[in-house]
TrEMBL record:
GO terms for biological process: DNA repair. Keywords: Cytoplasm, DNA damage, DNA repair, Endonuclease, Hydrolase, Magnesium, Metal-binding, Nuclease. Gene3D superfamilies: archaeoglobus fulgidus dsm 4304 superfamily. This is Endonuclease V. Belongs to the endonuclease V family. DNA repair enzyme involved in the repair of deaminated bases. Selectively cleaves double-stranded DNA at the second phosphodiester bond 3' to a deoxyinosine leaving behind the intact lesion on the nicked DNA. Its cofactor is Mg(2+). GO terms for molecular function: deoxyribonuclease V activity; magnesium ion binding; RNA endonuclease activity producing 5'-phosphomonoesters, hydrolytic mechanism; single-stranded RNA binding. One of its GO terms (cellular component) is cytoplasm. It holds the Pfam family Endonuclease_5. It is found in: Cytoplasm. HAMAP family: Endonuclease_5. InterPro entries: Endonuclease-V (IPR007581).
Length: 233
DNA sequence: GCGACAG
DNA sequence: ATCTTGTCGC
Protein backbone atom coordinates (compact mmCIF):
# COMPACT_ATOMS: atom_id res chain seq x y z
CA UNK A 1 0.00 0.00 0.00
CA UNK A 2 1.55 3.31 -1.10
CA UNK A 3 2.05 6.02 1.50
CA UNK A 4 -0.66 8.50 0.53
CA UNK A 5 -1.54 11.70 2.31
CA UNK A 6 -5.30 11.33 2.14
CA UNK A 7 -6.00 14.59 3.90
CA UNK A 8 -3.91 16.90 1.76
CA UNK A 9 -6.39 18.88 -0.36
CA UNK A 10 -4.31 21.49 -2.15
CA UNK A 11 -3.00 19.18 -4.86
CA UNK A 12 -2.16 19.89 -8.46
CA UNK A 13 -4.88 18.75 -10.85
CA UNK A 14 -2.62 16.01 -12.16
CA UNK A 15 -1.90 14.75 -8.64
CA UNK A 16 -5.60 14.80 -7.80
CA UNK A 17 -6.47 12.70 -10.86
CA UNK A 18 -3.74 10.19 -10.04
CA UNK A 19 -5.01 9.92 -6.46
CA UNK A 20 -8.52 9.23 -7.74
CA UNK A 21 -7.34 6.38 -9.94
CA UNK A 22 -5.41 4.90 -7.01
CA UNK A 23 -8.19 5.20 -4.44
CA UNK A 24 -10.85 3.91 -6.85
CA UNK A 25 -9.47 0.41 -6.27
CA UNK A 26 -10.52 0.64 -2.63
CA UNK A 27 -14.20 1.18 -3.42
CA UNK A 28 -16.32 -1.78 -2.33
CA UNK A 29 -19.01 -2.26 -4.96
CA UNK A 30 -21.13 -4.91 -3.24
CA UNK A 31 -23.46 -4.83 -0.24
CA UNK A 32 -21.38 -4.62 2.92
CA UNK A 33 -23.58 -2.51 5.15
CA UNK A 34 -25.19 -3.04 8.55
CA UNK A 35 -28.91 -3.02 9.21
CA UNK A 36 -29.89 0.50 8.19
CA UNK A 37 -31.46 2.34 11.12
CA UNK A 38 -30.48 5.85 10.10
CA UNK A 39 -29.52 7.52 6.84
CA UNK A 40 -27.80 10.85 6.28
CA UNK A 41 -27.77 13.42 3.51
CA UNK A 42 -24.94 15.85 2.82
CA UNK A 43 -25.09 19.15 0.98
CA UNK A 44 -22.47 21.79 0.27
CA UNK A 45 -22.82 25.49 -0.41
CA UNK A 46 -20.57 28.53 -0.58
CA UNK A 47 -20.35 31.90 1.16
CA UNK A 48 -18.21 35.03 0.89
CA UNK A 49 -18.09 34.85 -2.90
CA UNK A 50 -16.90 31.26 -2.72
CA UNK A 51 -14.05 31.70 -0.27
CA UNK A 52 -15.89 29.76 2.43
CA UNK A 53 -17.26 26.24 1.91
CA UNK A 54 -20.26 25.27 4.02
CA UNK A 55 -21.35 21.63 4.49
CA UNK A 56 -24.48 20.37 6.20
CA UNK A 57 -25.33 16.80 7.20
CA UNK A 58 -28.78 15.65 8.29
CA UNK A 59 -29.32 12.27 9.94
CA UNK A 60 -32.77 10.74 9.61
CA UNK A 61 -34.28 7.65 11.18
CA UNK A 62 -34.95 4.84 8.71
CA UNK A 63 -37.52 4.04 7.52
CA UNK A 64 -39.45 6.70 9.45
CA UNK A 65 -37.37 9.62 8.10
CA UNK A 66 -37.64 11.74 11.26
CA UNK A 67 -34.71 14.11 11.84
CA UNK A 68 -32.38 12.65 14.51
CA UNK A 69 -29.31 14.88 14.32
CA UNK A 70 -27.55 17.42 12.11
CA UNK A 71 -24.31 19.35 11.85
CA UNK A 72 -23.01 22.30 9.83
CA UNK A 73 -19.35 23.14 9.20
CA UNK A 74 -17.59 26.03 7.45
CA UNK A 75 -14.02 25.82 6.19
CA UNK A 76 -11.87 27.94 3.84
CA UNK A 77 -12.23 26.94 0.17
CA UNK A 78 -8.94 25.53 -1.16
CA UNK A 79 -9.79 24.29 -4.66
CA UNK A 80 -11.88 25.73 -7.51
CA UNK A 81 -14.66 23.70 -9.12
CA UNK A 82 -13.20 21.49 -11.84
CA UNK A 83 -15.49 18.88 -13.44
CA UNK A 84 -14.18 15.51 -12.26
CA UNK A 85 -12.37 16.98 -9.25
CA UNK A 86 -15.39 18.08 -7.23
CA UNK A 87 -14.51 16.00 -4.18
CA UNK A 88 -11.23 17.84 -3.58
CA UNK A 89 -13.22 21.06 -3.27
CA UNK A 90 -16.01 19.69 -1.05
CA UNK A 91 -14.53 16.89 1.08
CA UNK A 92 -12.81 18.99 3.76
CA UNK A 93 -16.09 20.67 4.76
CA UNK A 94 -18.08 17.43 4.51
CA UNK A 95 -15.62 15.50 6.70
CA UNK A 96 -15.66 18.29 9.28
CA UNK A 97 -19.47 18.26 9.39
CA UNK A 98 -19.56 14.46 9.72
CA UNK A 99 -17.10 14.60 12.62
CA UNK A 100 -19.45 16.91 14.52
CA UNK A 101 -22.37 14.48 14.48
CA UNK A 102 -23.37 12.75 17.69
CA UNK A 103 -25.40 10.13 15.80
CA UNK A 104 -23.36 8.33 13.14
CA UNK A 105 -25.38 7.24 10.07
CA UNK A 106 -25.45 3.68 8.68
CA UNK A 107 -25.67 5.00 5.11
CA UNK A 108 -24.69 8.31 3.54
CA UNK A 109 -26.32 10.02 0.53
CA UNK A 110 -23.89 12.37 -1.22
CA UNK A 111 -24.75 15.17 -3.67
CA UNK A 112 -22.90 14.15 -6.83
CA UNK A 113 -21.58 10.99 -8.45
CA UNK A 114 -20.19 7.81 -6.96
CA UNK A 115 -18.49 5.57 -9.53
CA UNK A 116 -20.36 7.30 -12.38
CA UNK A 117 -17.18 9.32 -12.85
CA UNK A 118 -14.38 9.31 -15.49
CA UNK A 119 -12.00 7.57 -13.06
CA UNK A 120 -14.78 5.83 -11.09
CA UNK A 121 -14.14 7.96 -8.03
CA UNK A 122 -16.73 10.68 -7.53
CA UNK A 123 -17.38 12.51 -4.27
CA UNK A 124 -19.54 9.69 -2.84
CA UNK A 125 -16.65 7.23 -3.27
CA UNK A 126 -14.18 9.70 -1.81
CA UNK A 127 -16.26 10.29 1.32
CA UNK A 128 -17.07 6.59 1.59
CA UNK A 129 -13.47 5.40 1.36
CA UNK A 130 -12.11 8.07 3.72
CA UNK A 131 -14.77 7.51 6.40
CA UNK A 132 -15.42 3.84 5.79
CA UNK A 133 -19.16 4.56 5.72
CA UNK A 134 -21.50 2.95 3.17
CA UNK A 135 -22.27 5.72 0.65
CA UNK A 136 -24.42 6.42 -2.41
CA UNK A 137 -23.92 9.02 -5.12
CA UNK A 138 -27.17 10.92 -5.76
CA UNK A 139 -26.55 13.43 -8.54
CA UNK A 140 -29.01 15.88 -10.07
CA UNK A 141 -27.30 15.75 -13.46
CA UNK A 142 -24.90 13.61 -15.50
CA UNK A 143 -21.13 13.81 -15.48
CA UNK A 144 -20.32 10.98 -17.89
CA UNK A 145 -21.86 7.88 -19.43
CA UNK A 146 -24.74 7.20 -21.79
CA UNK A 147 -28.24 5.81 -21.27
CA UNK A 148 -31.35 4.91 -23.20
CA UNK A 149 -34.36 7.21 -23.24
CA UNK A 150 -36.09 7.24 -19.86
CA UNK A 151 -39.92 6.95 -19.68
CA UNK A 152 -41.67 9.95 -18.10
CA UNK A 153 -43.43 8.05 -15.34
CA UNK A 154 -42.26 8.00 -11.74
CA UNK A 155 -40.31 4.83 -10.99
CA UNK A 156 -38.84 4.56 -14.50
CA UNK A 157 -35.19 3.46 -14.45
CA UNK A 158 -32.51 2.86 -17.09
CA UNK A 159 -28.86 1.88 -16.84
CA UNK A 160 -25.99 4.34 -17.23
CA UNK A 161 -23.02 2.92 -19.17
CA UNK A 162 -19.56 4.23 -19.87
CA UNK A 163 -16.73 2.46 -21.67
CA UNK A 164 -18.57 -0.89 -21.54
CA UNK A 165 -19.09 -0.61 -17.79
CA UNK A 166 -22.38 -0.30 -15.89
CA UNK A 167 -21.68 2.79 -13.76
CA UNK A 168 -25.10 3.83 -12.46
CA UNK A 169 -28.86 4.16 -12.79
CA UNK A 170 -30.94 7.00 -14.15
CA UNK A 171 -34.09 7.14 -12.05
CA UNK A 172 -37.28 9.16 -12.48
CA UNK A 173 -38.31 10.00 -8.91
CA UNK A 174 -41.41 11.97 -9.98
CA UNK A 175 -43.43 11.98 -13.17
CA UNK A 176 -42.22 14.51 -15.75
CA UNK A 177 -39.29 15.86 -13.77
CA UNK A 178 -35.58 15.55 -14.49
CA UNK A 179 -34.18 12.22 -13.30
CA UNK A 180 -31.60 11.49 -10.61
CA UNK A 181 -28.28 9.81 -11.43
CA UNK A 182 -27.59 7.17 -8.78
CA UNK A 183 -24.33 5.28 -8.43
CA UNK A 184 -22.31 3.20 -5.99
CA UNK A 185 -20.35 5.25 -3.47
CA UNK A 186 -18.93 2.60 -1.15
CA UNK A 187 -19.96 -0.72 0.46
CA UNK A 188 -23.27 -0.98 -1.45
CA UNK A 189 -24.51 -2.48 -4.73
CA UNK A 190 -26.27 -0.43 -7.38
CA UNK A 191 -29.62 -2.16 -6.90
CA UNK A 192 -29.51 -1.66 -3.14
CA UNK A 193 -28.49 1.97 -3.62
CA UNK A 194 -31.52 2.64 -5.82
CA UNK A 195 -33.70 0.80 -3.30
CA UNK A 196 -32.64 3.10 -0.44
CA UNK A 197 -32.98 6.26 -2.49
CA UNK A 198 -36.53 5.28 -3.44
CA UNK A 199 -37.29 4.39 0.18
CA UNK A 200 -36.38 7.96 1.17
CA UNK A 201 -38.68 9.64 -1.35
CA UNK A 202 -41.95 11.33 -0.41
CA UNK A 203 -43.58 13.80 -2.79
CA UNK A 204 -40.49 15.55 -4.17
CA UNK A 205 -37.78 14.93 -6.72
CA UNK A 206 -35.04 14.63 -4.10
CA UNK A 207 -34.88 12.13 -1.22
CA UNK A 208 -35.67 13.53 2.23
CA UNK A 209 -32.06 13.19 3.32
CA UNK A 210 -30.90 15.59 0.64
CA UNK A 211 -33.83 17.93 1.20
CA UNK A 212 -33.03 18.25 4.89
CA UNK A 213 -29.35 18.83 4.20
CA UNK A 214 -30.27 21.46 1.59
CA UNK A 215 -32.50 23.26 4.07
CA UNK A 216 -29.87 23.22 6.81
CA UNK A 217 -27.12 24.37 4.46
CA UNK A 218 -29.16 27.25 3.01
CA UNK A 219 -28.68 30.74 4.37
CA UNK A 220 -32.16 31.08 5.87
CA UNK A 221 -32.12 30.24 9.55
CA UNK A 222 -35.70 29.06 9.35
CA UNK A 223 -34.59 25.52 8.73
CA UNK A 224 -32.49 25.42 11.88
CA UNK A 225 -35.44 26.62 13.90
CA UNK A 226 -37.57 23.87 12.42
CA UNK A 227 -34.81 21.40 13.19
CA UNK A 228 -34.68 22.51 16.80
CA UNK A 229 -38.42 22.10 17.10
CA UNK A 230 -38.21 18.58 15.76
CA UNK A 231 -35.39 17.82 18.17
CA UNK A 232 -37.60 19.08 20.99
CA UNK A 233 -35.42 21.99 22.07
C1' DG B 1 -8.97 20.40 -32.90
C1' DC B 2 -14.00 20.25 -30.98
C1' DG B 3 -17.34 19.55 -27.47
C1' DA B 4 -18.72 17.82 -22.64
C1' DC B 5 -18.42 18.90 -18.13
C1' DA B 6 -21.26 16.36 -10.64
C1' DG B 7 -21.54 21.17 -7.59
C1' DA C 1 -22.60 26.40 -6.65
C1' DT C 2 -24.47 31.55 -6.94
C1' DC C 3 -27.19 36.04 -8.46
C1' DT C 4 -33.07 36.15 -7.76
C1' DT C 5 -39.90 37.22 -8.22
C1' DG C 6 -43.23 36.00 -10.06
C1' DT C 7 -45.10 32.92 -13.11
C1' DC C 8 -46.37 29.14 -16.45
C1' DG C 9 -47.87 24.32 -16.56
C1' DC C 10 -49.00 19.39 -15.16
Amino acid sequence: MPDLDLHCWDLSYAEARTLQTTLARQVIQYDDLPEVRCVAGVDVGFEEKGSVTRAAVAVLAFPGLELLDYAVAKVPTLMPYIPGLLSFRECPAILEALSRLSVQPDLLFCDGQGIAHPRRFGVACHIGVLTGLPAIGVAKSRLCGKSEILPEEKGARVELWDDNELIGSVVRTRTAVRPLYISIGHRISLNTAVHYVEACLTRYRLPETTRWADALASNRGQAVIRANQVLGR
